[in-house]
Amino acid sequence: MSEESDSLRTSPSVASLSENELPPPPEPPGYVCSLTEELVTKAREELQEKPEWRLRDVQALRDMVRKEYPNLSTSLDDAFLLRFLRARKFDYDRALQLLINYHSCRRSWPEVFNNLKPSALKDVLASGFLTVLPHTDPRGCHVVCIRPDRWIPSNYPITENIRAIYLTLEKLIQSEETQVNGIVILADYKGVSLSKASHFGPFIAKKVIGILQDGFPIRIKAVHVVNEPRIFKGIFAIIKPFLKEKIANRFFLHGSDLNSLHANLPRSILPKEYGGTAGELDTATWNAVLLASEDDFVKEFCQPVPACDSILGQTLLPEGLASDAQCDDSLRAAKSQLYSCY
């Protein structure tokens, strides 16, 4: 790490509380690293994570939260804060902003985040809308498989699908391996019609992409889209204005060319539905993993929000999000794109 980066770790903004302030509450249980030596090396090279400085970095972020957002209702455990430091390559200020955005997004979209628990999403899980493949890719990334054609809009609103995706991401990010390696998304758009695509307008797109880019501590390494119909051009027209260039460059459209997909994701980790050799697509196993985590999600997402930090949802939004006026313009343009694709 450069001298400039090193100086960030000891900046005055993370100084200890002054003598006339109340002492901090007792520290949470200590952190024990579960990374292999190989992943420790990868985290050092890609994320600027130095094991010898790790706990000092966590304490610095903890001090910043206590000083700048003393009323924020958030975990301050070492393991929890490490998610945000890793997602922002141990830049204290950016990690703090990500943490604030994370809570702001949760406060500002109650339709998605209220009562967020696996038992509330049994219909979505049973539909096979999403799952996580049992094998990681060669880089160690878990592969999240999303199949929009399994969703029947008359059964439940699109926000239920978003809830299921967020639930899956929350479960995945508990793993330190995922924090370092990131994830890959495999989206199968086979059979997606114009009427179904119209549910995913700019307002929904802005919120979802805002969360994934600026409001959640996960690294999305690639998005592979297969079996996309012509209508996907319209869908992507809705999404693209909200994507940062780095993320936009990680979208790969394969159509029905499975050989193109296999050049990125080996056949050995893919189910036979996608030309793989890993057996039939299994959704039951991941559903069971989520349902077994019911108590954890109830504790985290089904408690009342303290009034003292509810202002977050009103005043802080992920950086780079478009205004409602821009969304109106995007909506008109997207509708034109959608219909022209047909």
Topology, pairings included?
Blueprint: H1 3-8, H2 37-47, H3 54-68, H4 78-87, H5 92-108, H6 110-113, H7 122-127, E1 130-132, E2 142-146, H8 158-172, H9 176-181, E3 183-188, H10 194-197, H11 202-214, E4 220-226, H12 231-239, H13 245-248, E5 251-255, H14 258-262, H15 284-291, H16 294-301, H17 312-315, H18 324-340
Parallel strand pairs: 2-3, 3-4, 4-5
Antiparallel strand pairs: 1-2
Helix pairs in contact: 3-4, 3-5, 4-5, 5-11, 12-18
Could you name the ranges where pLDDT drops below 50 across 5 or more consecutive residues?
Answer: 1-19, 313-342
Please count the beta strands (DSSP E, at least 2 residues each): 5
Envelope shape: globular
The CATH topology of the largest domain:
Phosphatidylinositol Transfer Protein Sec14p
Strand order of the largest sheet: 1-2-3-4-5
Second CATH tier, the architecture of the largest domain: 3-Layer(aba) Sandwich
Largest sheet: 5 strands, mixed
Secondary-structure content class? alpha/beta
User: What is the tally of helical segments?
Assistant: 18
CATH level 4 superfamily of the largest domain: CRAL-TRIO lipid binding domain
Return the CATH class of the largest domain: Alpha Beta
Number of domains: 2
Distance between the termini: 51 Å
- How helix-rich are the residues, as a percent range? 40-55%
The average pLDDT is 85
Order of helices and strands: HHHHHHHEEHHEHHEHHEHHHHH
Our Rg estimate from Cα atoms comes to 21 Å
Beta percentage is 5-15%
GO molecular function: phosphatidylinositol bisphosphate binding; phosphatidylinositol-3,5-bisphosphate binding
InterPro entries: CRAL-TRIO_dom (IPR001251), CRAL-TRIO_dom_sf (IPR036865), CRAL/TRIO_N_dom (IPR011074), CRAL/TRIO_N_dom_sf (IPR036273)
Biased composition (Polar residues): 8-19
GO cellular component, one term: trans-Golgi network membrane
